C-alpha cells in the first residue's frame, strides 16, 4: 500500500515502529540520505526518541576512535575503528587540543585560535563555535538530567611566584537558552594536567594545585549545577605531566594511570567520589615494547596503544583474567606528517545531525 504524505509525495505505508526498527540498524551516514524520503522519516531521524534509542544500542558495541594531528596542516584526523580495526568513519577538523568523545560527539580547539569545533565522526559533520578569547584548556561533557551538552573553557596565567592563576572559566550550553559563553566562578587554584572524562554528568580531570609544589588532585566539574570540586589523590600518587598521565575508564569507574617504561602499570581507581577513596590495581603488560594504557572496553580487556611508532601503529588487547593478549598492527597508510596519535576506547556511533547553528 502507498499513502500520500503532507508534502504531496508518496511513501510506503509501513508502521512507524517498523520504520524505526529498520532505521536503527543503518549506519548514521545512510540516515543522512534517508531524511529526504518523507517528512515522517525526517521527523523520526531528527527526533529525540530515535536518537536516544540509537545511542542505547550503539553503546553495546562501542568502537575505538583514533586521533591523529598533523602539524603541517594544523588539522586533526579522526578515524572510527570497528572491532576488527577496520576503518568505518573518518572526519577532519581544525585544531589539535581535543576532548574524549561524549555520546558520539567530539570537541577540539586550536591552541592559537578562538574557535571551538564540535564534530560527529559518524555523520562527518562539524560546526564551529566562536569564542571571545584564546582557550588554554577545553573540556566537553553531557548532563543526562537536563539532556544538554556543555563545553567548559578555561584561561590561565602564571603569577610572579610561579603559581597558576585561573583567569576565567566559561561554559557554553549547546542547544540551551543562553546564546553566549557564561563566566562561572572557580574558587580552587589549579592547572589541568590530563584530559577530561565525562562520567555520570561530571567531567573529571587531573590537575596540579600550582606549579610550585605540583600537588596533584582530581577536579570534578558538575555539569548540571556548574560547580567545581576537588578530589584528593593518595599521598604517594602524582600526576607526572600531560604527556605521561591520564584519566581513563576502568570497568565503569574513573582511574588515573601514568606511562610506564616497564611492563608494570599501576591504575588508581576512584572507588568513592565523596570519601575520596582509591584502590590500586597493578597490571603487567605482556610485551616489552613501550605502550600506554587506555583503559578497559566492554569485554573487560585492557587496551594499550603504542607509545612510539614508526611505519606501524600497534594496539594491544589484554584480558587480565585469562592472561591472554592479542596485538593488532595498523598501517600508517602513507600518513608521514602526523606528529602524534591518541586512541579513545569509549566511542559510539551517533545519528545526531548538527544544525548550522547548534545554539538556539
Molecular structure report:
The strands form seven sheets. The protein has a four-stranded antiparallel β-sheet with strand order 5-4-3-26, with no helix packed on it. It has a four-stranded antiparallel β-sheet with strand order 6-7-8-9, with no helix packed on it. The chain has helices at 16-23, 28-34, 39-45, 48-58, and strands at 2-4, 10-12, 63-70, 75-81, 87-94, 97-102, 105-109, 115-120, 125-130, 137-143, 148-158, 164-174, 182-184, 191-199, 202-208, 216-222, 227-232, 245-250, 253-258, 264-272, 277-284, 291-296, 302-306, 312-319, 324-331, 338-347. The chain has one domain: Kelch-type beta propeller (Neuraminidase), CATH 2.120.10. The protein has four helices and 26 strands. The relative contact order is 0.14. It is globular, with a radius of gyration of 21 Å. A hairpin with a 5-residue loop joins strand 11 and strand 12. With 360 residues, the chain is mainly beta. The mean pLDDT is 81. Helices cover 9% and strands 50% of the residues.
